Amino acid sequence: MADPQQKIRVLIAKAGLDGHDRGAKVVARALRDAGMEVIYTGLRQTPEMITEAALQEDVQVVGLSILSGAHMTLVPKIQRLLAEKGLENVKLFLGGIIPDEDKPELEKLGVTGIYGPGTSTQLIIKDIQNACQQ
Amino acid sequence: MSAIDPEPVLHGERLAVTRALTQIENNTQKGYQLLEMLFPYTGKAHLIGVTGAPGTGKSTLVNQLAYHYRHHLEARDPPKVAVIAVDPTSPFSGGALLGDRVRMQDLTGDPGVFVRSMASRGSLGGLAGATGNLVQVFDAAGFEIIIIETVGAGQAEVDIASLAHSTIVVEAPGLGDEIQTIKAGILEIADILAVNKADKPGADHTLRALRTMLTLAQPQPEDLDHHGPAMKPGQTDIDEPEKAWVPPVLPITATTGEGIPDLVGELANHASYLKTSGEWKQREQKRLTNELEMLLRDTLRSHWETKISPNTYQDTLDQVINRKITPWKAVELLMGGANL
């Protein structure tokens, strides 16, 4: 049972060598306007930095923006570090350029949602809200 | 509903600490029970407040300050440092964008540092309602230095002064003329004034204006003699000038770390001043008094809410909106109807 004062806390992170954060900022802003508390980490984060921030901020959701093509390396590493820190309940969402053929593998790794260019922010908001109610 | 075990929190285990912070921030019953158990272990940390207008460089300065405590203190083990960074909650959506971590990248990967972002959740004084309670958790978990960064403050967000032992007010060049420096409010709460972006043009002017302001507040003997003893105000500070704390004004360039060692030195001076003058105790008492009063207010309100039906409240409110009764009359009716 969720406490009435419980807010959905989301970490929005840009992983790896990838300097383009327009999409991440648009999503962060949309989630803010949907009443969530969004922690933005800035650019060029390592998996260690992202998972440590997720721990310190005690977020329910991590939203990763990856446009560099490194998702098949970064996502497993982040999932493993989250589990090591006792954060296996944190839901991972992925946005950016993710080829369709990688999606089944990523979903098997436990990624909750994957969003490409042109996704409506309303859809992302709804999916996050649903994932946090479970 | 089982209570949370306080032991891992007291040992500073990070997962336990972060979960404790969440429970307490959300004002849950479990959170209160935990605070109850942690409270006897608090009161050891040096609480440092950092406040100032948006964009003056508070987060960058906090980053440097925490880094200095961790890496550049000589002749002792570095203290564990906690940072609580507060950013505003939207009054429209209830959401918040917490972006202070962006400036604190130097602190990641250090197990002796814990950075927690907080949304203000409707509080107006520059902090969140639960900030004081989060401080207790860090204090009990063995963090010796706790840095609290307020929301970008305007002129009157001065709650930090009653929470922190030492308050740093961050100024930057180009934010107004000398008249700004003699207004009441945020400058009055400074224990230390940091003029950030000291490498920018106009920094000298800002430094001078702030130092002048301080000499107006703390007249020097030679200033008084100038017009004879009739000018002497009845301030006790003047009678014992060696005992009063005069806030130092320090030039800082937070992006490079220039001036940070001086700032840390002044923080140590301020802490020992507070202890020798007895003010440390006074501030602690004031802080706990404030907390008790806030809690009382909240508790009275929720107690009152259980006594009054939502319909009665709505009816009374409608009457006020329709200009049938005044807000004062409405309060009288609602308080009377509650049978407190």
Q: What features would you describe in this structure?
A:
The complex is a heterodimer of chains A (134) and B (340). Chain A has 134 residues and is of the alpha/beta class. Chain A has a single domain (9-133), classed as Rossmann fold. Chain A has helices spanning 22-33, 47-57, 71-84, 103-108, 121-133; strands spanning 9-14, 37-40, 61-66, 91-96, 111-115. The longest helix of chain A is centred in the middle third of the chain and has 14 residues, at 71-84. The relative contact order of chain A is 0.19. Chain B is α/β, with parallel strands linked by helices and 340 residues long. Chain B has 2 domains: 42-278, Rossmann fold (3-Layer(aba) Sandwich), CATH 3.40.50.300; 308-337. Helices cover 45% and strands 12% of the residues of chain B. Chain B is built from 14 helices and 8 strands. In chain B, helix 7 links the parallel strand 6 (166-171) and strand 7. In chain B, helix 4 crosses helix 11 (260-277) and helix 13 (310-321) runs antiparallel to helix 14 (327-337). The longest helix of chain B is centred in the last third of the chain and has 29 residues, at 279-307. Classes of the chains: A alpha/beta (134), B alpha/beta (340). The interface between A and B is medium-sized, with 29 and 29 residues. Strand 2 of chain A pairs parallel with strand 3 of chain B.
Concise account of the structure shown:
The complex is a heterodimer of chains A (134) and B (340). With 134 residues, chain A is of the alpha/beta class.
Number-wise, the strands of chain A total 5
Taken in chain order, the helices and strands of chain A follow as: EHEHEHEHEH
Portion of residues within helices of chain A: 40-55%
Decide which structural class fits the backbone of chain A: alpha/beta
- The number of helical runs of chain A is 5
| Rg measurement of chain B, Å | 23 Å
Give the CA-based shape of chain B. Answer: globular
Q: Determine the CATH topology of chain A.
A: Rossmann fold
Mean pLDDT of chain B: 86
The separation of the N and C termini of chain A measures: 10 Å
Give the strand order, joined by hyphens, for the main sheet of chain B: 4-2-5-1-6-7-8
Tally of structural domains of chain B: 2
Query: Topology as H/E string of chain B?
Result: HHHEHEEEHEHEHEHHHEHHHH
Q: Strand share of the residues of chain B? A: 5-15%
Q: Could you give a short account of the major beta sheet of chain A?
A: 5 strands, parallel
Oligomeric description of these chains? heterodimer
Q: Which stretches of chain B of 5+ consecutive residues score pLDDT under 50?
A: 228-239
Instruction: Give the total of beta strands of chain B.
Output: 8
